[in-house]
Amino acid sequence: MTAEHEITEPGPLLDATGAVREPGWARHPVLDCNLENAHFYRIRAAQPLRTKRWDYYGVTHPDGFFSATIADLGYAGQVFVYIIDFATGTCHEDTVTIPFGRGVVLPRGSDGDSGYHGKRVRASFRAAAGHRRVEVDWRGFAGSRLCADIRFEAPTAHESTVVVIPIGERRFYYNRKINCMPATGKIDFGDVTIPLDSATSLGTLDWGRGVWPYRSFWVWASASGYLGDGRRAGLNLGFGFGDTSAATENTMLVGGTIHKLPGIEFRYEPTDLMSPWRMTSDRVDLEFTPFLERIAKTNLLLIRSEVHQMFGRYAGTVIDDAGESVQFDGMVGWAEEHHARW
Question: How far apart are CA 34 and CA 24, in angstroms?
């Protein structure tokens, strides 16, 4: 595989014709997400109906996982939250769907504020210098009430995985993923309170913008945790969409620095996703062993999706950009397979 192109200079995401101006990857979000230039229909006013935008936060803590998302899929908005208990294997999940995304606020860039305030659900994602804050108040969540208030430490120097991937001539995927953000705060669900300590709880942001084909498929694998020597480390691996000749989203984060990992082969059994997964290349030798499966299905006529998110442990080695072997010894993370019609 040829060397991937690193984007280092600021500029617009799309040119005047609506095409991706500079495919590649970056350590920080240097490109302006000018979605108003998208041009894949003759009627420009119809473009927003096929444009997808989302902000997804997740936090891994010793007892489980919590996630909150605000999304606008063009013809519908969604807010969804799920909370997983690793010990019992239980997953509580709820979704509110908003016709045409009315009331959903999503920022132009990945350092802006997102929100939705409805009758049952209030969700606010805010970004400030050096940190991010997620607040959710959901009455009637899974038959109870859920309140979350989480602060993620995100220093400006902390690198992230940013990719610009064309999909055909006029479709594209612009994405930023931040791993290993120390998290503090708490999650209240019914009569249970889950405290979050930055020494043991780490957050992830998945910020996505783009235009996909109606039928889409991808695999995303991620982890945020601590190495044996105490350093924070994360994995972001994936495949399944677009022209990745200029960049993939495969990276390792160690101590706030991204190490680029091109050319990874995934081997897993689609009919038995709880069996071990293998991720290998000349620099990667990882085995992911699931211990829990979360299945999420949506059927809203135009919008259909099926996600199988496997939580498990990563073991093996990854060679960083300096040639050092980094050992993963049971770090908790996930790998998911996603089929969508949207």
Answer: 17
